[in-house]
Amino acid sequence: MTEVLVKVGFLAIAALNGAIIFTIMDVKGASWMQRRPGPLHVGLRGFIFPLAEILKFVQKEDIIPTEVDRPVFKWAPAYVMVSCVALFAVVPMSPTLVVADLELGVFFALAISSLGTIGVLTAGWSSANKYSLMGGLRAAGQLIAYELPLILAVVGVVIQAETMSLVGIVEKQIEWGVPFVVGGQIVGFLIFMVAATAEMMRVPFDMPIGESELTMGFMTEYSGIRFLIFYISEYMNMFILCAIASTLFLGGYHVPLLPTEWVNFYGPVVLLTKTAILGFILVAIRWSQPRFREDQLQNLAWKILIPASLVNILVTAVMKVGF
Amino acid sequence: MVNALDPQNMNSFSEASVSVEIETEDMTLNIGPQHPSTHGVLRLVAKVDGEKVHDVKPVLGYMHRGYEKLAEVRSYPQITTLVNRIDWVAGFSNEIPFIAGAERLMEIEVPERAKHIRLILTEMARISSHFVFNGAYALEVGALTPIFYAMEDRERVLDLIESVTGGRFHPNFNRIGGVKPAAGAGPTSKKNIQDLPAGFYRDTKVAMEKVIQAADQFQNLIGGNEVFKKRTKNVGVLTAETAEAYGVSGPILRASGVKSDLRTQTDYLPYDQFDYDIPVGENGDCYDRWDVRVKEMVESAKIVLQAIDSMPSGPLQAKVPKVIKVPQGRTYVRAENPKGEMGYYIVSDGGLGPYRLKVRTASFSNVSILPIMLEGALLPDLIAIMGSLDFVLGDVDR
Asked: What is the phi-psi region of residue A68: left when phi exceeds 0, alpha when psi lies from -120 to 50, beta otherwise?
């Protein structure tokens, strides 16, 4: 019992901290690219900016409009957050430092990540706002469309590693000597990152939020702490999907040439560094790209990413059987 | 029991699945008056079927401030304060046609130096207006960064306008017969005519070089972006015939391929002394409308640089009576403003103020094209098309 509580506590704290680190990275990236003085100079060189942000949302009034479907409206943010935290359970920081080394780890991760869709869709539906509804429907269409390339990109890794356990996948990469991204899964990695960006609903795939079109999409009617939960979930999702990407494709907690017997010590640092590098790329994309249109987004998923990932699976399978 | 796998039944099954059609109802979506992309308080009542827009009706008047009526109870020098606020993004250029109209009725010849200063400040207002458009338009198609660059660059131009006139947005600088003595020029003395502030020429040259650089930067940063091209090319195509039929003017008309610019067609300011191009678009889509404005910024900067070099000396004011009374008569003066054609129809009964003032603003006519352009567009395109028209609600509603 205690062990379970410790594990759950670790999950919540680690995921939250990851989200805060990514928030700092995002605002710092923004202020660096946009020459904004706020997050660069104010308050310990801008590092307590997320704290101020969180306190601001906590002390704001949580307004619930009269016309909304109250229980659904209230619970929608929780779905999104739970799916993010649960996702983190299977990410290994080192061979032993992992909450649950499931045999079907990849399967679990992909199944849980689609749970957040329910939260987004119910938030859009229950808000009794046309903008929210359109945002929710856009989100549903987008998340369903990009779930497929995300899964199909991972299938290549699973074929190559011959296991679905995330620890097993990392061990396989250590055994190979190079991460999978070098060892033949470069296309899979790119597809995974594009699909993951769409899953996180970040620029250039942020149509469900699209503040210039749908004001704030499915979040329009949320305020105070519930908005904060959505806000943090976005960064948590970003952190965890980047962590999964580095585990699957970039060798996880290990870098080539480092001694494997010390992996328990440097493992978390290595994983976090890789995650942060991927996160920084997403931040840079966010602050430099406009938004796609809804139909262009769907075209990208169904006409380019899914065929490409199928070809990727085919090539991987042929290589696996042939050599 | 029907066997679905029986080839005889296959045909009827496929037909059944094809003939199912869901009946849907159009949803009425109120875009505005409070909406981040409507540039203030424009309201669009849109009938949408999912993402597709079927019908759009713009609802105006939320910003109506009654300037035409207010002008009737004010004297001519007081009215410049009012008209400043019509298109607040380019405050200075609103004053010019009104003052020029009053001067034409009074038959005053404005000194060349005053005309040059007016011209410089009008072009600066155009540049600052186009900077705002650049940033805001990028924001509307989803790019969050360019607005910070645009605002920073615009500030340089606004600083110059402020150093001369004392106001960033609402200069209230024109006087009948010339311009007000410059704000930064020091104390009044009869022998020492107040003029442009010290260092103005130097600062302007630096700032205009920066504007040309900034326009170049925008061409790379925004115009070279693949996503931006995808969002704007062949979106919201406006043909020259439709544009002319609806009284559309300014950069929107030029983007549709019509080389129409009042700066060359009328003589309200001495534009004929300078050498500049009129950028014209080819397809009349959102990208062209954006492109024409960026190129116009460069041309405006070139005009300012030439005007600085050829600045004549002389007085800032023509001789005018102490109490300004405009003789009986009527006149219409139009000017090329950043948003398009702006005109004032002044009817004077010989009193201290106009008997009637009719303001023709560019944005009002430009917005009238929205229902035509938005029919059948997608919702994200609606925002992109609306943004490319670059209207200001003060200019629409007055």
From this structure: beta
